[in-house]
Amino acid sequence: MPNIKPSSPPASELKKHVATVHVSGELSLLERKIVNVLLLNAFDDLLTKKRHTLPVGIFCTMLGFDSKNHDALKRALLKVMSTPISFDLLHDGGKTDWEASPLIAYASIKNGICSYEYSDWLAGKLANPDIYTLININVQRQFSGGYALALYENCLRFKRTGSTGWIPVETWRRLLGADASMYDEFKHFSAEVIKKAVKEINHVSNIVVSPEYKREARRVVQIRFLVEDNPQKSMYDNEDEEQKSIRESEAFKRLTRLGVGDRLAISWIQQEPDRALQTAIYVEERAKSKQIRGNAGGYARTVFEKAARIEVGPGNGKTETVPALPAVVEKDTSAEERSRRTTARIKSMTLAEKQKFAGEYMAEGGKGNTYQPETGTFKNALERTAYTSWLRAKVADAH
Prior knowledge:
By secondary structure, the chain is of the alpha+beta class. It has 4 domains: 1-136, Arc Repressor Mutant, subunit A; 142-238, Winged helix-like DNA-binding domain superfamily/Winged helix DNA-binding domain (Arc Repressor Mutant, subunit A); 239-340, no CATH class; 349-399, no CATH class. 47% of the residues lie in helices and 18% in strands. The chain has 18 helices and 14 strands. It has helices at 18-21, 29-42, 56-63, 70-82, 120-127, 137-140, 146-156, 169-176, 186-204, 234-237, 241-246, 250-257, 262-271, 273-288, 296-305, 334-347, 351-363, 381-398, and strands at residues 13-17, 51-55, 84-90, 96-102, 106-110, 113-117, 132-136, 167-168, 207-216, 219-229, 309-311, 319-321, 371-372, 377-378. The strands form 6 sheets. A 3-stranded antiparallel sheet has the order 2-6-5. Strand 13 (371-372) and strand 14 form a beta hairpin. The longest helix has 19 residues, at 186-204. The protein is globular.
């Protein structure tokens, strides 16, 4: 997941430390979304950069925050900074480990750019989580209720096991931020928080959750949620069949083992599948001979994206042109071949074809606020990325 620059949109998925999912304290829907978006933006550079930046326009778009009222955004950032975050690392079975930290150490909005920092301790925790929850920012934008988003975050990582396990009611209240005294009575907590949140999750997200209750002396003392895939998840995941196939490819597996983010690896394979696989092989060989200084994933990114001149070994002060990457004897996978054909088809489109496809996309509900008919493209980076994803799926299906 590359760090966002003004001309480059983010990937949509975030591997989020489960401790930051289990937040104590009353955070609004907007504030919870801010926490996720800022972490997504900073994720690749948590250990190499102190300060992270995000254009306010892109920030608001990712939040689904259409208001021009930046004062509201500043107030929400201030609330995130000033809310003590209790890290309850929830294990299967309901046992917890506890740590605490302020979530954001610094934030500013200047000249249309939001800048922010994490503490060194927190950055280390977030960059090397023991347990991941995969949060899709596109799904997050569908939520309109803070409790629903909080419950979604807390249930998502249990999709593979099928259940959150039995957890005390008081723990659930704390995890969801339902601290108001009115929820001391379970009937109010159930009606206003649990039932409404479950209904929204099942309606808008990529999972379906079902609560079950354990009683003692007719009083509900524990709740568990059964978690399964939503049959309509393809509507929300924004990942076409091509990308799913790419995840099974040799190039993807080797790149991600090196530490390249999932979405970045997919992007490379879509752009230049041969080069992506060759990059992985080249970096693997240098890693085996201990010729890489620092992070192998970052080194792979340098090789793939720049590949003109890179440092050879630590301490010799020399640079050399990257040699021709090794020939690949393995046969391309069907996904990589399909991706290559799709890319070539899109590059060969006439202006009339581009305009035709863009018209179809917007007719189907795609955002086109920055559509430029003279070029058949979208000026806004996020709109352009969403359209490109749709177009690749459309072209691939036609082959």
